Amino acid sequence: MEIPDTCPLWAARLLSCFCLLLLAACGESRPAPTGKAVAGIETRFPLTLGGKTIRVQVAVTELETQKGLMGRRALAADEGMLFVFAQSQQRFFWMRGVPINISLGYFTANGRLDEVKALIAENPVEVPSRSHAIRFVLEMPEAWFEANKVRPGAVLDLAAVRAAIQARGFQQYLDE
After folding, report:
1. Do the domain assignments include residue 36?
2. CA pair distance 67, 52, nearest whole angstrom
3. Has residue 30 been placed in a domain?
């Protein structure tokens, strides 16, 4: 912004400060601090699925869900990533940037496993869910579902999922 020569220096500085404050106010909004620490994406949360205890990272934001397991060279035997979406719909996942094969489970809003897919490392082709009612997606090590006899119909521990979502600070994703 150009400031006229007739403008006093103090007015120009005041105007500059005002503009900076206005820009800062237009930035990303954050929830008011609650005094509680919010768990980050790297935190592993315990969940049960089909009687098996697993530890998962919980991806909620668009950036987290887009990045997923990109760059991850290995997963521990019972470790994975749970993707949480605000609404149920058909989901599409691909493996661009993921150098390991994984197993993927598509889950409905009530936590029921609808289908399992095998995803191949670095494959950029989207793998769609058959259902248009998918709310959660779980990525686990290759063949994990088969090895642990976790089949469609198995149910995620939704109380633990809700606790993880709350610990991440995303209460708006909790059912009311």
Report:
1. no
2. 26
3. no
- In the chain, the number of structural domains is 1
Q: Are 65 and 173 in contact (CB under 8 A)?
A: no
| Cα–Cα distance measured from residue 137 to residue 49, given in angstroms and rounded to the nearest whole number | 13
Q: DSSP E strands: which ranges in 60-161?
A: 79-89, 92-93, 102-108, 113-119, 127-128, 134-141
Three-class SS state of 157: coil
CATH of the domain at 54: 2.60.120.1140
One-character DSSP codes across 25-65:
HTS---PPP-SSPPP-TT--EEEEETTEEEEEEEE-SHHHH
Query: Residue 108 pairs with which residues in a beta bridge?
Result: 134
CA 52 to chain centre: 22
Mean pLDDT of 104-112: 97
Residue 122 pLDDT level (bands cut at 50, 70, 90): very high
Instruction: Look at residue 12 and give its three-state secondary structure.
Output: helix
Query: Measured between alpha carbons, how far is 73 from 6 in angstroms, rounded to an integer?
Result: 62
CB-neighbour burial class of residue 109 (10 A; exposed 0-12, middle 13-18, buried 19+): middle
Question: Two tokens at 118?
Answer: 């095998």
Pair 78, 103: CB distance under 8 Å: no
Higher pLDDT, 14 or 42: 42
Q: Are 68 and 100 in contact (CB under 8 A)?
A: no
